[in-house]
Amino acid sequence: MTNKNNLLAGELERLGISRRTFLKFCTSIGSVMALSPAQAAVMAEKLVTVKRQSVIWLSFQECTGCTESITRSHKPSLESLIFDFVSLDYHHTLQAASGHAAEQAREQAMHDNQGKYILIVDGSIPIKDDGVYSTIAGMTNLDMLQQVAKDAAAIVAVGSCATFGGLPKASPNPTGAVSVSDIVHDKPIINIPGCPPIPVVMTGVLAHVLTFGIPELDSMGRPKAFYGDSIHDRCYRRPYYDRGQFAKSFDDEGARKGWCLYELGCKGPITHNACATVKWNNGTSFPIQSGHGCLGCSEPDFWDAGGFYKALSTGTNSPGQWATAALAAGAAAGLASAYLNKSSKADAEKDHQPVTLEDMGGKS
Amino acid sequence: MKTPLNLPIEIAAPSTGMAQAVLHELAGHLQQLIESGKTEVIDLTSLPMSSSDKQQLETQLGKGEVDITLTTIGESRIFETAYSGIWWIRHYTADQHLIAELIEICSVPQIIKSHPADMQQALSRLKNTH
Amino acid sequence: MNEIELLNWARGPGLAYATAIMFFGLSIRVIEILSLGRPEELAEVRDSGVRDGWLMILKRSLPEVRHWKYITASYIFHIGLLVVIFFFIPHTHLFRDVFGIFWGGWPNYIIDFFTVLSIAGMLYTLVARFYDPARRILSKMSDYLAWLVTFLPLVTGYMAFHRLGLDYTTMLAVHILSVELLMIAIPISKLTHVVTFTMARWYTGSNQGRRGVRS
Fold first, then answer.
1. Please, are residues A116 and A141 in contact by the beta-carbon 8 Å criterion?
2. What is the nearest CA distance from B65 to chain A, expressed in angstroms?
3. Does residue B123 belong to any structural domain of this protein?
4. Which helix (H) or strand (E) holds B11?
5. Averaged confidence pLDDT in chain A
6. CA of A261, closest CA in chain C: separation in Å?
7. B122 lies in a domain?
């Protein structure tokens, strides 16, 4: 049934949002996503004609921070419009239904929109010991993901846990946590890493999926529009890095002057995210602007990539201890070898027989 | 609470000559608009312009006769530059954060025009009131 | 394995193994060499040889007029390499982390300058080695390999810093891995001279001094 109320156009009308406002929204999202302004206008015209999209949201080994990021960081705004518009058919933290009713809603949505719904996943999936470490309604996360992914049109992995395993996967990974893309191989997967991801990145990607389909992704499945540049590439403190002006501690003169935080462990150079341009809390600030280095939370295994406060150029396995041990072991081996050399030399000297005239065929 | 912290952070903002490049591009677009009626939009946020580049561009384009304020969720400031057909558009959120900055080459920016869907709705509202 | 996993391996296990191999190897080699001692002196020893040992270290470290182009290029490359290794700020943090001492670094533009000098110097020595008949005959595969493992960290480091070639994460990983290759090569090739050059020069000088030859 293609009732007007089923389209975003009807929803806009109901909320009293003019097309002008909507165009402004699409322009700002398009600008963030590096779409051409003409494409943003197309997006505005297209979005109003899309059907309410069924979305199933599965939360596995996660902290709900990703949901918090989307739902709470904005006061009712244009960005939240997208979420008002999609039909969020299952999200066990947000939905009113619980128990059997909740699971039934999920099954109903899967049935009604077979092959057409979007699956959003936050949290990693434990697979050790048959996945017993996290279950929902008696079903392991692994089983539920496989079941729901089967008939999904596309999967959006939200947050570093769903995209790369995140904190649950941190060494020694007691639950055998893995990412969505480690399990599902036959569906398009969009990875939106971050701990948590930036809200407008999530809404922007969703708007893109609804209008133009799956955005251009990089080798790790991340939308290039948001993850194409590193924090360092877009950092406003970059000129200080280039000039070699670094803060040495969090309260020295360099820190007060806003110099580069590389020496204090900033992982900006290897971290791909949009924090430096889009920023957080409605564009207020981002970690580096508030004087703290980037932790690299949107990259794989950020938790195990060495100390947060150690420079990127240092080792993660305390090479100093290895150097000391190796020096001692080498010294021991060297001494042993010296002893062997000495004794073979002594043996050679002992066995040495002087050459006599007779040996040379002469007569004594 | 709302007072911004006055941290003495200096941001290097050298002029890169970007303003001149944009002016050149604008001339091309304006000629195209005159000859074929094709409008064009430049997204300033996507260009690698320093703040002084942007300042320079704004100074050179100047202000024209029209200055419009939209009041949709947050304000939008739209003004025609001293060059007819070249419009400068700034979209802000409700808390005055700049979310998009564009230059549109057209006779009237698209966002100013009333949308048919909005007019349709207005019509039905009008009819309901009488 | 994605680029971050590669980088994490290079910064973690890779660096630890390379460090262990380098220090283990150098430690064996130095102790073994020292344990060889001197051959018995059959003639009367005329001098302690200490003065001549030091003199030889100094003398062999000074440039010579002979082959001045080649020697200048070698000089430039060696000095540049030392500056880049020990005074690039990110490197100084690695040393602080490993040895606990910190001497501060130099601005990036100085490091950049020395990197380019070193690369140019190394390229010159390679070309000279190849085109000079005498050097070409003396050069074996191991000499070219030693050149290569020294050259790679310089080039990959330069490329990573300037965001050339591969993306930064991969380039940084490749740079660190190339350094680890160099670290492993140091104790098992002629590159051991990073520690033995003073020992060798002192030995030659003092030997001569003990025999009454002025060095």
1. no
2. 23
3. no
4. none
5. 86
6. 12
7. no
Can you give the CATH number for the domain in which B90 is found? Answer: 3.30.1370.140
Contacting A residues, span 197-216, partner chain B, CB-CB under 8 Å: none
Residues of C in contact with A322 (CB under 8 A): 16-17, 19-20, 23
| Percent of the residues in chain A that have a pLDDT greater than 90, as a whole number | 42
Mean pLDDT, consecutive 10-residue segments, chain B of 130 residues? Answer: 51 66 92 92 76 86 93 89 95 81 92 90 86
Residue A236 at interface with chain B, using a CB cutoff of 8 Å: yes
d(CA A6, CA A1): 8
Question: Which CATH number is A51-226 given?
Answer: 3.40.50.700
A326 and C24: CB-CB below 8 Å? Answer: yes
Give me the total of CB pairs closer than 8 Å, taking one residue from chain A and one from chain B: 79
Residue C39 falls within a domain, yes or no?
no
| Confidence band, pLDDT 50/70/90 cuts, at residue A2 | very low
Residue C167 lies in a domain: yes
Residues listed for chain A: 364
Q: Is B4 on the interface with A (CB under 8 A)?
A: no
What span, in angstroms and rounded, lies between the C-alpha atoms of A166 and A119? Answer: 19
Q: Which chain B residues are within 8 Å of A256, Cβ to Cβ? A: 7-8
The total number of structural domains in chain C stands at 1
3-state secondary structure of B41: strand
Query: Is pLDDT of A3 > 60?
Result: no
In A, minimum Cα distance to C96 occurs at A314
B28 vs C49: CA distance, rounded Å: 82
The closest CB to that of A315, out of C27, C94, C168, belongs to: C94
Residue to mutate among A28, A77, A235, A286, with most B CBs inside 10 A, is A28
C31 has a chain A CB within 8 A of its CB: yes
Report the CATH number that the domain containing residue C127 is assigned in CATH.
1.20.950.20
In this complex, do A27 and B111 lie within 8 Å of one another by their Cβ atoms? yes
Q: Name the token pair of C3.
A: 């680029």
Question: Which tokens is B113 given?
Answer: 């025009």
Q: Give the closest of B11, B73, B110 to A77, CB-based.
A: B73
Residue C157 lies in a domain: yes
Question: Does residue C13 sit at the A interface (CB-CB below 8 Å)?
Answer: yes
| Domain enclosing residue C58, as ranges | 3-26+46-210
Domain-located, residue C33: no
- Superfamily for domain range A229-325: Cytochrome-c3 hydrogenase, C-terminal domain (4.10.480.10)
Full domain range(s) for residue B63: 40-115
- The ipTM assigned to this model is 0.82
Q: In chain C, which stretches have pLDDT less than 70?
A: 214-215
Q: Which range has the worst mean pLDDT, A215-229, A326-340, B13-27?
A: B13-27
On chain A, the residues whose CB falls within 8 A of the CB of C8 are 301, 304-305, 316
Q: How much is the average pLDDT of A111-126?
A: 93
Q: Where are the domains of chain A?
A: 51-226, 229-325
Please tell me which residue of chain A has the smallest CA distance to C19: A323
Q: Are A47 and A30 in contact (CB under 8 A)?
A: no
DSSP string, chain B: --SPP-----------SHHHHHHHHHHHHHHHHHHH---EEEEGGGS---HHHHHHHHHHH---S-EEEEESSSEEEEEE-SSTTEEEEEEE-TTS-EEEEEEEESSS-TTTSPPHHHHHHHHHHHHHH-
Q: Which chain A positions have a beta carbon within 8 Å of C22's beta carbon?
A: 326
Task: Note whether residue B18 is domain-resident.
Answer: no
Q: For residue B54, tell me if it sits in a domain.
A: yes
Question: Under an 8 A CB cutoff, do C108 and A242 touch?
Answer: yes
First to last CA, chain A: 125
- Chains within contact range of chain B (3+ C-beta pairs < 8 Å): A
Count the domains in chain B: 1
